[in-house]
Amino acid sequence: MTDPREAVERLREAYNRHDLVALARSFGERAVLVSPDGIAEDRDEIASYYGVFMEAFPDTIVTPQTVGVYHDTLAAEFIITGTHEGPLLVAGGEIVPATGRPIAVRACSLSTVEDGLIASHRLYYDQLELGVQLGGDLRFAGPP
Length: 144
Hints:
It is a single chain. The protein is of the alpha+beta class. It has helices spanning 4-17, 20-25, 43-56, 127-133; strands at 27-35, 38-40, 61-70, 73-83, 88-89, 95-96, 102-114, 117-125. The protein has one domain (4-135): Nuclear Transport Factor 2, Chain: A (Roll).
């Protein structure tokens, strides 16, 4: 069994370098990413998902806080920081224009690793927390 820390660390390093090619290679060919924004179902869709966020926050980085491993699954708590410098596509299809505001969003993920690659990556963060930091327009945080 492969230690899931290796695959998830490759993902974090690629994300922090904004290297979408290396990021995609952290995932298996049929990997699935589930997030508050939707589902991405293969390497290309997953890289596209992260690319949209990196376009909106070109200086974004992930800083790990807590990591736990159980067999082939890694649970991670981390902070996503960056500056909102580009358009952000949010759930529901709305685009939030750049605000120039900094963000520090607490998040966590569960990643299941098979054969050294991430097979399933479930990302959780509070859309309300992000919305407030972008200026308080809470409409895009979800339906009432």
